[in-house]
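Review the following:
>
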Amino acid sequence: MNIQELISRYRAGQRDFRNLNLIAIDLKNLNLSGANLSGANLSGANLTRTNLSYANLTGTNLTKAKLKETNLTKANLSNANLSDVDLSQANLSQSYMRGASLSGATW
């Protein structure tokens, strides 16, 4: 799936995007609030200033992703791989991170 298809499906009301392979994709400044991206591979993705509030990111691979200024309010990040992620100025209010790997992450 490419970015245009993802945006089009999201705007049409689809929220289930489990297990997608979106390596190094540029998703900055998008609204993906409430999306189910569990098990997706978003390693190296640019999610700067993206709204991922209430998103399901369970088991998602976010290694080396850019999450600077990203809204992760009430997001489920349990068992997600956040190794070497840039979380500077990200909003993690009430996010659930049990079992998440944060090795090398910057705040």
Summary: DSSP finds one helix and no strands in the chain. The radius of gyration is 12 Å. The longest helix spans residues 3-11. Residues 36 and 56 are 5 Å apart (CA to CA).
